[in-house]
Each structure stands twice: as C-alpha cells, then as structure tokens.
Design brief:
Largest sheet: none
Shape: elongated
Oligomer: single chain
Number of helices: 15
Structural class: mainly alpha
Distance between the termini: 100 Å
Order of helices and strands: HHHHHHHHHHHHHHH
Strand content: under 5%
Number of strands: 0
Length: about 350
C-alpha cells in the first residue's frame, strides 16, 4: 500500500473535478433522480449501476456526455450517503470506481459505508485503496488504521501498513503543529487538520476549548462506550489521535511495550490519566502485573463506568490471571482435608452413640 507519497491530480480525475459542479441548479437530490439527470445518451441503471458504464471507446467519442453520466452517478451516490443508505452508497460508488479508477472519493465513500455496515475488512481495503490514489487525505490514513484494527483477519502485513500510516501521520503532525489543551483531557478527532481554518480565524483559546470538548468522547470510545462517528467535526488534534491509534494497535497485538510507549506519548500531550485508564489497565494485563491491574479495575468501578464495560473488564481480568496450578492444588487439598474431618466427625459421633448404648444395656 502506497502511504508515504504525495500525489498529484492526473488521469480522468480532472474531468470529474471540473464538471462536478459545472451545471448550476442541478436537482441532484430530487426525489426522482431520473428527472434531474443530465445525461441523455447513457442512463444510470439503478439496479446495477456498473452495467450502465459506457465502454472506453464510447466515452471517448462523447466525453461531455460521459461527464454528465458521471454527475448523475455521483448524485445518486451522494444522496445515498447523506441519507445513510450505506448499501446503495457502496453500489453507486463501486460503479464510480470502475468508471473513474483514480478518483479517491469513490473509495473514501465506500470506506465509510462499509464501516457503517460493520464490514471493517472491506472498509479498510477501500481506505487503503484511497491512500494509493491522487489527493490522499489525512483522514484516509486515520480511517484505514481504525478499520484495519477492527477487522477479524489481521496479520503482519496489516501491522506493516498501519505502522506506515502512523509514520506518515506523525510526519504530517510535525509539519503542521497544533496548540495543546491547557487542561488535561483526551481528543477525539474526526475532521482534517486542514479544516481547522474557518471563515473567521479562531483564537488559540477557542481552538484549545474546541479540542478539549472532543477529548472525553475520544477516551470513552477507546473504552468502547461511544460508537465511532463520521459526523463533521471542526477540530482534530492530530498528535493525540496518533497516540490513541498507536495504543489501539498495541492492544490488538497484546504488546505491553507498545501500549507503554503510546501512553507516554499521550501523557506528554496532557491527556488526563482518568481517560487513559483503559489503556493503562490493558498494559497491566499484558505485562502480567496482577496487582496493578486489580487496582485499575477497582478504579474503573469507582468511576461509575457502565456495568457492561466493568463486567467485560472483569471477564478479561479473570482470563488473564487464572488461579495458578499451585493454588488450585492447595484448594483441592484443603477441600479433601475438610471432607476428611467431616467424615471423622460423623464417625466419632456415631462411635459415641454406640458406646453410650452399650453402657446403658450393661
């Protein structure tokens, strides 16, 4: 996967970009999309959009009509995306990926749609493809890492690709520094650093406050309490996002050293220890530090986390620290001793009764 190159626009992408908004007033989201179609020569087959793509020879004969066809296809895909119709989003943008193979937007949209459908392997593959195409975005890297880590199939190649994306993100964050929050709390980053610039440039204090508001949500997501969201978000603190992603990779690999490194990274970014509890507890599990894991688990209960979260942590804790064979042996021995003493007590009582009867009979 090509993750570290800066790409320039090329191929058929300029045609699509130039005509995406070329016709003002286009009813792209009309109830009956066919009524607002621009193309007259080739109509989008809504049942099978891919089947309606004209051949390369046909499109070269009439490039303007092909551009209109692409607009009609994008209109359907965007309408499905905005309405949360994720299966249709995949259908239309999959067709678009065949019509214009070097348009990253198709794979970007499919990445989000597949994730919404819970198909994280397909989501990661789509975002991975977007990374290799012109105009790859920071958010493509972030989503790729997020969804690759959620995929059931996970191997050395995935780790290699994730590390490449994290390296790229770190380089980008170093070249585009952002202010740190002045109070301790973690970040949830959804938008691109480029989106920090607003029509009215915000002050440092406003940026810090906006970052802080996203931090607690990011930490709760790390504990599995908040679902991932692709809703627009005006601020992302990229360095903190990288730290969270690195910790998630460490947890997926059950690597205490990796988790320790990302925790140090997040602490340098002024993330509150309360919000790092989940990562710290996981590190203790992987390091087989039972005493520290128990203390962090007790702290989690004291914070009033949801019962399901605490129950899941307790289950994982029990699996990580099962009773030792030595302890189990002593439990068996103790049980055997108790049983033997009980039997002796019963026999002793019976013997006393028998002796009493013999004495009375005499």
């Amino acid at each position: 996967m090509k993750t570290l190159k800066r790409w320039t626009i090329g191929g058929t992408l300029p045609l699509l970009a130039a005509l995406s908004f070329a016709v003002p007033g286009t009813p792209a989201y009309a109830e009956d999309l066919s009524e607002g179609d621009l193309a007259t020569k080739w109509k989008v087959n809504d049942e099978d959009p891919k089947a309606s793509i004209p051949s390369e020879t046909e499109r070269n004969k009439d490039p303007m009509e092909f551009a209109y066809f692409l607009q009609d296809l994008v209109a359907r895909g965007e309408r499905a995306f905005k309405q949360g119709d994720w299966e249709s989003t995949v259908k239309y943008y999959n067709a678009m990926s065949f019509a214009v193979p070097d348009a990253g937007v198709s794979f970007r949209r499919m990445c989000v749609a597949f994730a919404k459908l819970g198909k994280f392997a397909f989501a990661a593959a789509s975002c991975g493809k977007a990374l290799s195409l012109p105009m790859a975005k920071v958010m493509d890297h972030i989503r790729y890492v997020e969804y690759a880590l959620k995929s059931e199939a996970f191997g050395p190649k995935d780790v290699e690709n994730i590390e490449a994306s994290l390296k790229h993100l770190r380089e980008h964050a170093a070249a585009n520094p952002q202010p740190l929050p002045e109070t301790t709390a973690p970040v949830r980053a959804e938008a691109l650093p480029e989106q920090l610039a607003a029509p009215r440039k915000r002050t440092r204090e406003e940026l810090i406050e906006a970052i802080r508001k996203k931090q607690e949500k990011r930490a709760l997501e790390a504990l599995g309490e908040v679902s991932d969201s692709d809703a627009p978000n005006p601020v992302m603190h990229l360095a903190t996002e990288i730290g969270f992603l690195a910790c998630k990779l460490g947890i997926r690999l059950r690597d205490a050293d990796r988790v320790g490194a990302c925790l140090q990274e997040l602490r340098q970014l002024k993330v509150d220890e309360t919000y790092l509890l989940g990562f710290s507890w996981s590190q203790a599990l992987f390091a087989k530090d039972e005493a520290r894991a128990e203390a962090l688990l007790a702290k989690a209960e004291g914070l009033g986390l949801p019962a399901t979260t605490v129950a899941a942590m307790k289950t994982q804790h029990a699996e990580s620290f099962p009773p030792s064979k030595f302890s189990s042996l002593w439990l068996v021995v103790a049980a055997a001793v108790v049983l033997a003493l009980t039997i002796l007590r019963v026999l002793w009582g019976y013997r006393k009764k028998l002796t009493l009867r013999e004495t009375t009979a005499t």
